[in-house]
Amino acid sequence: ILLKIKKGEKMKQVFNMIIAFFIYPFLKIKFKNRNIWLVGGNAGELYVDNGKAMFEYLNTKKDLEVYWIINSSSPAFKNVNGKKLLRGSIKSYLYFMNSKVSLFSHSISADIVPYLFVIPLINRFHYKVIKVFLNHGTVGLKKRQPMNPKLEKLINKLIESYDINTADAEYEKKIKNLDWGIDEKKIYITGSPRYDSLENIVTLGKDKLFFMPTWRPWLKDNEAIEETDYFKNIIGLITSERLQFFLKEKKIELRIYIHQLMHKYLKEFQENIVGENVILLPKEADIQYEIMTSKLLITDYSSISFDFFYIDKEVLFFQFDKSEYNEKVGAYINLETSLFGPAAFNINSCIDEIMRIHGNDFQMEDEYKKLKDIYFNYKDRNNSERLFKIIEGEIIGKRKNINNNSIV
């Protein structure tokens, strides 16, 4: 994800990069023999998903010096469990130039070192570092979107330069190879690091339902969000008197997380959400905790559904705009035959399904469990370790190729 950065901030980041480049030769001795690894995601805004999982795993390795790249204004700044570097700062660029590995969930340019890839001469450092693309979620329910023709060649070149690209199973590897055009030799079936720590947590008090709709790329910035079918269906479900009565009667809590790319509309959602058993979560919410403590996920096309599926939790797909989504975005998996949970296409049928699933004590049906072998090669909770060993092998290989030649 490439955030729209103000021109002044962009120029500051480029200026910081140039300063780091010029002071790099004078500080080489300071970084000698240091094993620096950088991790980031969501353009420095959040501390979540595979990046967070891998960062915390790497922090258990005593011989590594690991840093999370984050924006100073990030609401998740205080949540980072380890060392931090400010995204776009002189220090972060300097540490990147002296690092061995960078791991990221969206792109190395957005998450780790803004703009470095496109700056002549300085971008030589880009090829020195082992680059690991973690994904921010399992690929399947959302096709890769067409790129801006002006940037397509540049973005493809950036993606092709990544040394390691992870996948959960052969089906995901094929998507990245055949549809994304990634070299098969660079795609490794490791499993997602964030799945390693997933477990079912039983909490006291009310049962929890987790509602997390994803964003819609076709919604325009100048469009009144309240007038869209997207908003009307989400708010219509939440405020339904029938659902409100059911939640209260059964002592159930509905917890809602609006996708980060829709957070500019958070005020509009907040103003329309009612009900004593309904909670709107903040941007920095611990999504993994919500996954582990919720009985049911209600989503539309979010990759977080795979997290629930991984630990045998029921998923309800509320696909109120299925035809439009298929036309404008599309999915790699067949939404008719390959979903791992029931689907509802309007508010009333969604409530019907919620009630039915509750009546079945939130147990996943066998027909869905049979699909797990398609989507997950590994269920051993060793995904982080498996990826770490692959990275170590890549470091050894790159070290031989560089043959100790210095950069700059």
Commentary on this structure:
- This protein is of the alpha/beta class.
- It is 39% helix and 13% strand.
- The strands form 2 sheets. Strands 3-2-1-4-5-6-7 form a 7-stranded parallel β-sheet, with helices on both faces. A 6-stranded parallel β-sheet has the order 10-9-8-11-12-13, with helices on both faces.
- Helix 1 packs across helix 4.
- The longest helix is centred in the C-terminal third of the chain and has 20 residues.
- Mass-distribution shape: globular
Number of strands: 13
Taking strands numbered 1, 2, ... along the chain, how are they ordered across the largest sheet?
3-2-1-4-5-6-7
The portion of residues forming beta strands comes to 5-15%
Set out the fold topology:
Blueprint: H1 7-23, H2 28-31, E1 36-40, H3 49-58, E2 65-70, E3 83-86, H4 90-97, E4 101-104, H5 108-111, H6 124-128, E5 130-133, H7 149-160, E6 164-167, H8 170-179, E7 187-189, E8 207-211, H9 229-238, H10 241-249, E9 252-256, H11 266-272, E10 278-280, H12 287-293, E11 296-299, H13 304-310, E12 314-318, H14 322-328, E13 343-344, H15 347-359, H16 366-369, H17 372-375, H18 383-402
Parallel strand pairs: 1-2, 1-4, 2-3, 4-5, 5-6, 6-7, 8-9, 8-11, 9-10, 11-12, 12-13
Helix pairs in contact: 1-4
Short recap of the structure:
The protein is an alpha/beta fold.
Label this structure with key terms.
7-stranded parallel sheet; alpha/beta; disordered N terminus; single chain; 408 residues; globular
